[in-house]
Design a protein that fits this description.
Blueprint lengths: L3 E4 L6 E4 L16 H10 L6 H14 L14
Antiparallel strand pairs: 1-2
Helix pairs in contact: 1-2
Organism: Thiorhodococcus mannitoliphagus
Protein name: Cysteine-rich CWC family protein
InterPro entries: Cys_rich_CWC
Length: 77
């Protein structure tokens, strides 16, 4: 698939999609919560801009259950 100049289907912002060279794609630096990725793939058939990917990932991350509410990994003494 060649590089494409496109618009984000969620917000209309311009974006550059380079699936054959993912390191240079606009989405490469974005870390997406796994639940967000599933929802994005279900809701959108095209690439989203970095701002929308970040926002949707943060939204899903905030809704995800917390494994350790206190943020501690060691048990209290």
């Amino acid at each position: 698939m060649p590089e494409c100049e496109d618009q984000c289907p969620r917000c209309g912002a311009p974006l550059r999609c380079t699936p054959d060279d993912i390191e240079h794609c606009d989405c490469a630096p974005i870390r997406i919560h796994p639940q967000a990725l599933s929802a994005i793939q279900a809701d959108y058939s095209r690439c989203l801009c970095p701002a929308c990917l970040s926002a949707l990932s943060a939204q899903h991350s905030a809704m995800a259950p917390k494994d350790e509410p206190s943020g501690r990994s060691d048990p209290p003494p």
